[in-house]
Specification:
311 residues, mainly alpha, 11 helices
Length: 311
């Protein structure tokens, strides 16, 4: 039996397309436009000046708060409010069904958070490999374009995650860890993954396809594989637990832990630079790969015994 959030008679691929396009419209167009207007009171200048400076935001330190507001608005509207309205309008159901579907166990949440932190070590190998991958000659034009996009995204990320105060860090934490943890999981695992399973007839295919879509929307091709693998982990956590809270928490831990470590590094409280693209030492990566698989197998067995797999 499929999850009762969606109506069985609607063609699955139609639902996938409608969900994705409506959420992206909110995330890329509507949310940022509303965020732009909300950010104006926090910018010393007029609308035209803000628009001009946003073309090259890293040159203007005063744009950090407006950018956080725009990003938070895009996520809140495009990946939380629009999906909730979509489900209510077209499916005549509440999006909160995803939160009430199965029991959430504290041990499952704790182990899921531990899993994500442990996976950061072996995933660093994929991060380094993907960052240095070269494409064949016929794709060199695309590679140049992708490298340019990557450089712009990296510069913007570094700009937004260089904190001058605790308040700035807390605002970033909300915009980068809390909201994306809720919104991206709601859309890609809670809504798209069940419909992709209905479309393909295979949960494993659905998990991987939704993870590919999740990674693709970030438009960072030299970080595509590690982000996709994270999406796969989130997908299995949702499949096994049956409650969207579990992958949301795992996603929050991934983003939140990274931000905290960056903040500690910038304030001189740790020598570990989690933002580095260098991989962990081989033996360390092997050890944490074993730990990661051990936690995965335990979580799978735990939820099999609790009979919480999504059906």
């Amino acid at each position: 039996m499929q999850s009762d959030l969606f109506q069985e008679q609607r063609p699955a691929w139609t639902s996938v397309i409608f969900i994705f396009l409506s959420c992206m419209l909110g995330f890329i167009v509507v949310g940022p436009l509303i965020g732009f207007m909300l950010a104006l009171p926090f910018f010393e200048g007029d609308l035209l000046t803000l628009q001009t400076k946003l073309a090259s935001p890293t040159s203007y330190p005063e744009l950090k708060l407006p950018l956080f507001i725009i990003q938070a608005s895009a996520t809140l509207i495009g990946l939380i409010i629009v999906p909730a309205l979509y489900v209510k309008a077209f499916e005549r159901k509440s999006v909160f069904n995803l939160f009430r579907n199965k029991t959430v166990y504290n041990s499952s949440l704790a182990l899921s958070g531990l899993l994500i932190v442990a996976f950061m070590v072996p995933n660093s190998v994929f991060i380094e490999w993907n960052a240095n991958v070269t494409m064949p000659e016929f794709l060199r034009g695309f590679e140049a374009w992708a490298r340019d996009k990557e450089d712009v995204a990296t510069a913007l990320t570094n700009y937004l995650t260089t904190f001058s105060s605790t308040g700035q860090f807390l605002f970033a934490f909300f915009a980068i860890a809390v909201l994306p943890g809720i919104g991206e999981e709601l859309v890609f695992r809670g809504m798209l993954q069940p419909e992709l399973r209905r479309a393909t007839g295979n949960m494993h295919v659905a998990i991987w396809v939704s993870a590919i879509m999740f990674s693709a929307i970030h438009l960072q091709f030299f970080g595509f594989v590690p982000r996709m693998l994270l999406g796969v982990l989130f997908g299995y956590l949702y499949f096994w637990s049956g409650n969207i809270i579990v992958p949301m928490f795992a996603h929050f831990v991934n983003n939140g832990f990274s931000l905290i470590m960056l903040y500690l590094y910038q304030t001189g409280n740790t020598s570990l630079n989690i933002d580095s693209s260098e991989s962990a030492p081989l033996l360390t990566a092997i050890l944490f790969t074993i730990i990661t698989f051990g936690i995965l197998l335990y979580l799978k067995k735990f939820h099999e015994e609790k009979n919480t797999f999504l059906t």
